[in-house]
Amino acid sequence: MRVVVWVEEVGWRACADFASRFVGPSDEVVLAACVEEEAEMALRVARRGLVGRGAWGEAARLLAGALDEAAEKLLDSSSRRLGHQARLVKVKGDVARGMLDLARGADLLVLARQGERDRAGPKSLGHLARFVVDHAPCDICLVWPKKPARGQMA
Fold first, then answer.
1. How many Å apart are CA 128 and CA 34, to the nearest integer?
2. What is the edge-to-edge ordering of all strands in the sheet holding 108-112?
3. Whole-model pTM?
């Protein structure tokens, strides 16, 4: 079985925990963290608006590096929590299409819902996750994130 696990800041623990309970030793697991297209586009647009201002190039480089580093840390933490051999992938640019590409040939895509279990509302999925759920070429498992302990990120 091939399982793709989409890890994000909210819900990555629940996704890794779910996958760790259901994958076997011979299963292929792909952990995917995304750098959203909107964040990269904001960098490009802001840079165009500030061309000629010497410090901007360094600031853009630092911000892009911070986004990349955050994705790497998320993948590392998820991999440790999973406790299973996994291929780590950073999806950049068009996140929704990138996740659909990863899901091609997979048996299962695992991702976290957003919001709170005890509060009904329309925002259980963000627009990127909704697009992926609507167009996924494989089965999907939506998991609820657990409430974080005090002082801990979701």
1. 11
2. 87-93, 28-36, 2-7, 108-112, 139-143
3. 0.80
